[in-house]
Write a structure and sequence with these properties.
CATH topology of chain B: Rossmann fold
Mean pLDDT of chain A: 94
Oligomer: heterodimer
Strand order of the largest sheet of chain B: 1-11-10-4-9-8-7
Number of strands of chain B: 11
Number of domains of chain B: 1
Largest sheet of chain A: none
Mean pLDDT of chain B: 87
Number of helices of chain B: 10
């Protein structure tokens, strides 16, 4: 059996696990929606769509939506389930099987990608009453789902590293908080060129910026290949690094 | 004359222990060492274990908490790297070809390692698929094993609701999905009530009767006495006694000049240099 087949079996089990704990998905939907409502409520009047050129004729909620989508994809619940497997001994049972070590980490990441696609789609639908539309059309919507789920995989990979290293739910949970500084060091409220110089510098070095700008371009404009290429390139590099580190760690796991 | 705790005693004083021909060995370890690097320096969990377990045996591996039992089992089952020495199961070097070794061994570790959100059947099917069975083969194998461990009625319920005894039996079944040649059971009856313990014993006997070698670690000396053909006692990371239960008792009886055979408890206490009083009040950190 190939590594991909083994990872698919383990991914299927991880999805079943998620379906059987629907409670864990509720915060993943509600908290990003909460941030969307609060951020639009606080800054929406400052940026009316009629006189704010960077909104491209849409509401401020459309500008804010990528932050909420990225937040929803950054809960990293896969890593918390992994810690449960480690603490409960099931992870050792899987390790005692003749399964590729890569499949052990890939399975959960594949499930995380599928979960992110579903949650992103639900969030976009829930955001429609805010006057949001996906300007890049159905293909743009598809790319938006792919970009967000790839970010979900990257972040889940990062959380899995903490889980495998510390084997502690508390440490893994705390590790997830890293996303908040990353989210706020982006052009979260205004485009990059309107940020103060120090914030602009920080945003330029923050990889989340490029994913956010790619998502924003899909929502506000027709397909714009330059921001999309930057977004996908950042995700490809981060994804490769996370995967390599995960595989390295699982191979030396005692 | 009392013997130095930790010094190795072969079970038969008059004649050497029976040797097992190399071709019939199910488990073999030579100079097995495991060191951990901790904040306080290097910890020697296992300091040079030599073991030979014959095909078809039920081999008991005893020792106090922290003696190195679980660490040794984890090395033999490919779950932990080996610092030095060699370990083979059914002739396969566990470090050189871990996947080949995994195909020949079944493992049920302490604290039944199960996924509480799956049903018993789902868990067995997944385990069988991971060992290379097709979906149809896995479903059939799961059904056979559920019947074997008497869990057919609970098969489609989530494991979360199983009792401790049911979880142990399911864990045992999951270790058997690929019909392993050697079954490693690490304290399989710890925490079970007497009835559940007897059920696990019956399963173990039945599995062994089908030709599977059983490598059993336990803290219950009565269990070892009842089930094991041969056993070894580990203390401080070294094997300090090895032989059949009868041989070990006879050796102590002869050495101490006793009129009746001692119990296995007394053999254990003699081997580990402990007293009943010390054992009762002893609290040791379990390092593996």
């Amino acid at each position: 059996m190939s590594t991909v087949q083994q990872a698919s079996l383990l991914g299927g089990r991880a999805l079943r696990e998620a379906l059987r704990t629907p409670d864990s998905s509720i915060p993943t939907l509600l908290i990003p929606l909460f941030f969307l409502v609060v951020n639009v409520g606080q800054a929406g009047k400052i940026f009316p769509s009629s006189s704010t050129s960077f909104l491209e004729g849409q509401s401020y909620a459309a500008f804010q939506l990528p932050s909420s989508l990225l937040l929803a994809a950054s809960f990293g619940t896969a890593a918390l389930y992994l810690v449960e497997d480690i603490e409960g001994g099931y992870f050792d049972k899987l390790r005692a099987a003749p399964v590729s070590r890569s499949a052990l980490v890939l399975g959960r990441l594949m499930a995380e990608a599928a979960k992110s696609v579903v949650i992103t789609a639900i969030l976009v639908v829930l955001a429609l009453p805010f006057g949001i539309s996906i300007a890049s059309g159905p293909l743009g919507f598809l790319l938006l789902l792919v970009l967000t789920s790839l970010w979900g995989v990257v972040f889940a990979g990062f959380m899995q590293l903490i889980a495998l290293k510390t084997r502690s739910a508390a440490a893994t949970n705390s590790g997830g908080l890293v996303f908040f500084p990353l989210l706020f060091l982006t052009p979260n409220f205004v485009p990059r060129e309107l940020l103060t110089r120090p914030m602009e510098l920080a945003a330029t070095f923050n990889p989340v910026t490029y994913v956010m700008e790619a998502l924003r371009s899909l929502i506000l404009r027709d397909l714009a290949w330059a921001p999309l290429a930057r977004g996908f390139a950042v995700l490809a590099v981060l994804g490769a690094v996370m995967l390599a580190l995960n595989v390295r760690l699982i191979r030396s796991y005692d | 004359m009392p013997r130095e705790p930790g010094s190795k005693v072969s079970a038969t004083v008059e004649s050497p222990p029976p040797t097992i021909p190399a071709m019939e060995l199910a488990v073999e370890a030579e100079g097995l060492v495991k060191q951990y690097r901790g904040r306080g320096g290097t910890v020697d969990a296992v300091r040079g274990v030599d073991l030979r377990v014959g095909v078809g045996e039920v081999f008991g591996f005893l020792g106090p908490n922290g003696a190195g039992k679980s660490t040794t089992v984890r090395m033999l089952t490919t779950l932990m790297s080996v610092t030095s020495g060699t370990a083979r199961v059914t002739g396969i070097d566990v470090m050189a070809d871990p996947d080949a070794a995994r195909r020949r061994i079944g493992v049920a570790l302490q604290e039944a390692g199960l996924d509480p959100r799956q049903t018993g059947r789902e868990l067995l099917v997944l385990q069988a698929r991971l060992f290379g069975s097709s979906a149809a083969q896995a479903a059939a194998r799961a059904q056979d094993l559920l019947e074997l461990v008497d869990l057919v009625d609970a098969a489609d319920r989530r494991i979360k609701g199983y009792s401790g005894g049911m979880k142990r039996r399911l864990d045992l079944a999951s270790a058997l999905v690929h019909e392993p040649e050697v079954l490693f059971l690490d304290e399989p009856t710890t925490g079970l009530d007497p009835a559940s313990r007897l059920t696990v014993w019956e399963e173990m006997r039945r599995i062994n009767a089908r030709g599977t070698t059983v490598f059993l670690t336990t803290q219950y000396l009565e269990e070892a006495d009842q089930l094991c053909d041969r056993l070894a006692i580990i203390d401080g990371g070294l094997i300090v006694r090895e032989g059949t239960p009868a041989e070990l008792k006879a050796e102590l009886r002869q050495r101490r000049g006793l009129h009746v055979d001692p119990t296995l408890d007394e053999v254990f206490l003699d081997a580990t240099g402990r007293t009943r009083e010390r054992l009762a009040g002893e609290v040791r950190e379990v390092s593996a």
